[in-house]
Amino acid sequence: MLIDLFNHWIVITLMMCGLYMVIAHGNLIKKLVGLAVFQTSVFIFYISMAKVDGGTAPILADGIVHYSNPLPHVLILTAIVVGIATTALGLSLVVRIKEAYGSIEEEEIQQQDIQHQKNNAHTKVKLEEEA
Amino acid sequence: MIAHLPILQVILPLMAAPLCLMLKRPQLVWVFALIASGLAFVVSVLLLQQVMTTGVISYELGGWQAPWGIEYRIDKLNAFLLLIISGISTIVLVAAQTSIEKEIPKDKHVYFYVLYLLSLTGMLGIVATGDAFNVFVFLEVSSLSAYALIAMGQKRQALWASYQYLIMGTIGATFILIGIGLMYQMTGTLNMYDLSQRLPEVAQTRTVFAAFAFVVVGVCLKLAMFPLHLWLPNAYTYAPSIVTAFFAATATKVAVYLLIRFTFSVFGVSFSFTTIPLETLFMALGLVGIFVASTSAIFQSNVKRLFAFSSIAQIGYMIVGFSLTTVTGLTATLLHLFNHALMKGAIFLALAAVIYRVGSVELTNLRGLGRQMPLTMAAIVIGGLSLIGVPLTVGFVSKWYLLIALIEEGLWPVAVLILLGSMLAVVYVWRIVEVAYFKEPLDKNVIVKEAPLSFLIPIWALVIANIYFGIDTRLSVQVAEAAAQSLFGGAL
Amino acid sequence: MNLSLEVMLQLAIMLPLLSTFAIVATGKYPNIREGVTITTCLCLIYLVVNLYQGLLAGQAISAFWWELLPGLTISFDIEPLGMLFALIASFLWLVTTCYAIGYMRSHHEKNQTRFYLCFAVAIGAVMGLAFSANLFTLFIFYEVLTLSTYPLVTHAGTEKAKKGGRTYLGILLTTSIVFFLLAIVSTWFIAGTLDFKLGGIFADDVDKTIAGILLVLFVFGIGKAAIMPFHRWLPAAMVAPTPVSSLLHAVAVVKAGVFTVLKVCVFIFGLDLLAVLPTTQFLLYLAGASVLLASIIAMRQDNLKARLAYSTVSQLGYVTIGALLATSSGVIGSSMHIAMHAFGKITLFFCAGAILVSLHKSKISDMRGIGRQMPLTMIAFFIASLSIIGVPPAGGTWSKWYLMMGTIETEQFVLMVILMVSSLLNIAYLLPIPFHAFFPKLMSFKDAEQGVRPSSNIENTYTRAEIKEAPLPSLIAIVVTTLGCLMLFIYPQPLFELATAVLTGRE
Questions:
Q1: How far is B423 from chain C (nearest CA, A)?
Q2: Yes or no, beta carbons of A100 and B159 under 8 Å apart
């Protein structure tokens, strides 16, 4: 039973690794790497599930009667494209964040935002006092 | 032509998006996008008419027969949603050109429309399709364009907000993907109707339970249901105002739709609500969400953020209605879906107009605007009254149904809580009213003019809709009731 | 004009609302603007009087506007109680407008167009409320009335006005949405209808406990009736200009509250059911406490308007008591008290405003000796006080008489004592004002207790007395309402007939 579903175990391990990275790391790039690992684990899950014991590639040809399910492959092709797009978009956001904040560490960015808000609040109080 | 309506609904904005790139001139692109969205709206009206008279429309994409091919399946529920989404999108687009002039650099205007149309496509696609995997694809189409749109915001916080949303959104979407995979593993089909037929046979397996859990959590992330709402306030606050108006009125509605679709149609009422105590959980989370979010809203100094929290609270109302699993409760949720789109559309558009004129929507910037921008502020006030649920506005209609639904089930304490929750809305709406109407502007030398017509027309179209549908409830109630009944009828 | 009564009914509601357009359009020319308002008042009175005659002739007058949700309609139907309320409100609107013209101009108030506009909307809402055929319609106009009077309360735009407005709106909206709406939805769910029907709409076998809870929800939910502990909005609303306080917070808004309570008692529960509900007794005592406590608080107020406001809270308790007694004399007394108190209290407020405009005084302790300067005003104040207290020759006598009868019939002797004590308190807090105004040298023992000595400038005022009455339009208004108080004593017959007809239906 455990061995039978070993693909599931791999998927789960990868998935948890990915999620852990997303949650635990403060570095934005590392978060994205975690996200990618997380997504990839799902891709593996789909592909491994399509595997049929003793099946060949799903080609329409004489003599092939026993073949893997092609549908999950096709689905995952789409999902991979989506995954790439997400990662690319995420990375480009990180580039822009680096430009704007000078940092890609979550803590530092939040620190800057809080500082910024405090300054704003300060000027606001001043303005109100003047008014 | 009529036979191809379901696909036209999605393909129109999808095709229009890349075409925008060819036009180059922002003004032209705007008109073009407006036309595309307007046509999508017309299609949705035709679809709704057809569904109401003839029943479910099934469309086989590329002629491949369901359940092998992708099927677009329009019933009363999604026809209603399509109408809301395309309608709001069109109205919001009217103001887009003026608004983004101030908020987005000129060279990005064309891309803005491309992304906007793609996002629209995604939402319409999620709603129109009858194929589970297709849902995921469109979900990502709309989400990816949403991340990019939010990142276009003026302030650098927009980037951070977009990044947060991207992480949360992707996790949510991937969860849904896992859920769909597990379902496919058990049934060998992706067609929702087919799934709903086959799932009961294997309902008592752990795999189906896991699938259900993944899908529900994934959808709730997208829905920004408390406590999975953390991405929403930042995203709404820092996105360009037009984007906020569009998303606040539509994006979460699509997620509510997905929740209803998966729990009611795909997994079926008996599985979703009897096997798993979903209703108790959702009722509790919905109520807590209403109170926590409304209270947070009271303490916000940025008005956009304030209404973002209010949106989370309003989602709480929908969740409470949903958790009742009665026809009336679901009707209340669907009505609120429609009504909330109208309220928040009007309010956020009005805020966009304020940003256009004043540059910011910090509460202090609203001082004295009651005099300077009377029509815009009046729109916010009416939208706010609608949020509170004052009679003759749409908010009252949905609140009425929700109360009836609760009393039907004998849940009096919950009814009282719901009403107390709307009192919190009074507090945050009135904070704005007092600042706008009782305080003198900070700098009296600055002359602020009323918003231009390109804002006022869409804003007031929505405001009037707020009142009109609060009085003439035939359309909304009829459709919502019919949709709710059909969901309980079991047929997809 | 040969309008059918149905059309008139709808016009009576629409007219004030329609006049807002004209008021806005003519906003730049104050004289024409006020002309528009007065014309509207006159037309409204014409319509209401015609409707009254129609009602007397025994005609059924009703109108249907719209079906909001299946079974929930906005529709109107005239019955005697609503007629009585509409008559008072429309007549006093005219008088108040007259008064307001004098007051607002000599007080140099800003935003007068907004003032008249909101006023007209409020009156439209009152008409809708008075004529509504079901609880749902009533609720809509109830909320419209709350919202349309908010700008009036906060008219001054100052920090204080804002705070008052916050309390006003906060309490009225909270009670109406949390309690009233819940009660309405529950009623709708239990009874299946919200139409007003003589004898009530609940089935005979309705669960008494639930109905009792509903009654509590209704009485608390109708915050406009100002039953303690939900009375705070009324004193808070006193930051408004005096014409607003007088018409809205002595007549339209508060009377809308007790009117609704009466309507609910008579037409939703029905007197038979009301009498056997377990919570009725509790509410009666609550209203009694409200009457007594408000009177006591009123005695301690030095600001004249605040004192009058608490007096209103107390008098509203009378009406609620009358309704909850669930006997015919109680209902008759309540209905009549709506009218009597309206005339009395509006006169008192008019006087308070007149004193403010002419002498710039709002504190009672400053008002010694002003009888020399404002004799007419203070005489009016005296007569109106008599009406509030309930002694001849003023109208209040009759309503208090019937209310007393009601308490005796139902053997509620505690309440009877409360009502009597409260009347004594009325004397104590109202009569000293005109008394000191005319005889400044006398010092009441109450003042002696507090150690207040007549200050020296009273002597000055006393010697330098010259007539300094309010502006003419305001003065006319005061005289008219004072005469009204007297007339209602001498000639209460039509009012009495209307009040009796409440319980018998159309004649």
A1: 6
A2: yes
- Whether C429 is in a domain gets the answer yes
pLDDT band at A97 (very low <50, low <70, confident <90, very high): very high
Determine the Cα–Cα distance for residues C293 and C418; give it in Å rounded to an integer.
10
Task: Check CB contact of B148 with chain A, cutoff 8 Å.
Answer: yes
> Burial, C2: exposed, middle or buried (Cβ in 10 Å; 0-12, 13-18, 19+)?
exposed
Exposed, middle or buried, C31 (CB in 10 Å: 0-12/13-18/19+)? exposed
How many domains does chain C contain in total?
Answer: 1
Instruction: Say if the Cβ atoms of C174 and B423 lie within 8 Å.
Output: yes
For helices B394-408 and B453-471, give the axis angle rounded to 10 degrees.
40
pLDDT digits 0-9 by tens, C286-327: 999 999 999 999 888 888 888 888 999 998 998 999 888 888
pLDDT tens digits along B132-169:
999 999 999 999 999 999 999 888 889 999 999 999 99
Name the residue in chain A with its Cα closest to that of B157.
Answer: A113
Whether residue B389 contacts residue C147, with contact meaning beta carbons closer than 8 Å, is answered with no
CATH 1.10.287.3510 given to domain A6-51+69-105? yes
User: Which two tokens mark A105?
Assistant: 């560490």
Q: Which residues of B touch A14 (CB under 8 A)?
A: none
Contact flag for B and C (3+ C-beta pairs < 8 Å)? yes
Residue pair A22/A36 in contact (Cβ under 8 Å)? The answer is no
Q: Which among B408, B430, B471 has the least Cβ separation from residue C68?
A: B471
Closest by CA to B425, choosing from B466, B383, B387, is B387
Six token digits for residue C174: 């909270």
Whether B and A touch, i.e. at least 3 CB pairs below 8 A, reads as yes
Does the residue B95 lie in any domain? no
Structurally, chain B folds into a number of domains equal to: 1
Domain of C344 in residue numbering reads as: 279-497
Interchain contact, C69 vs B400, CB within 8 Å: yes
Domain-located, residue B6: no
Let me know if residue B489 belongs to a domain: yes
| Beta carbons of C499 and C338 less than 8 angstroms apart | no
Question: What stretches in chain C show pLDDT beneath 70?
Answer: 1-2, 441-465, 505-507
Q: Does B213 touch chain A (CB under 8 A)?
A: no
For residue C274, being part of any structural domain is answered with no
Cα(B102)–Cα(B106) distance, integer angstroms = 9
> A113: which strand partners?
none
Distance, in Å, from the CA atom of C89 to the CA atom of C484, rounded to the nearest integer, reads 13
Which chain B residue has the Cα nearest residue A51?
Answer: B185
- Interface contact B184, partner A, CB < 8 A: yes
The C-alpha atoms of residue C144 and residue C426 are separated, in whole angstroms, by 33
- Using CB atoms, pick whichever of A35, A42, A130 lies closest to residue B167: A35
Nearest by CB: B162 against A75, A93, A127: A93
Average pLDDT score over chain C: 84
> Tokens representing A71?
């549908």
CB nearest to B473's CB, from C68, C143, C170: C68
Q: What is the pTM of this model?
A: 0.89
> Is C234 contained in some domain?
no
Within-domain flag for B376? yes
Does residue B467 belong to the interface with chain C, where contact is any CB pair within 8 Å? no
Closest Cα in chain A to B364: A124
Per the structure, the complete domain to which residue B470 belongs is given by 297-492
Q: Do C178 and B423 touch (CB under 8 A)?
A: yes
Nearest CB among B133, B159, B167 relative to A96 is that of B159
Chain C residues close to B294, C-beta within 8 Å: none
* Residues 6+ away with beta carbon under 8 Å from B357: B373, B448, B449, B450, B451
Q: B163, A39: Cβ pair inside 8 Å?
A: no
Q: Which residues contact B451 (CB under 8 A, 6 or more apart)?
A: B353, B354, B356, B357, B373, B375, B376, B459
- DSSP class of C134: B
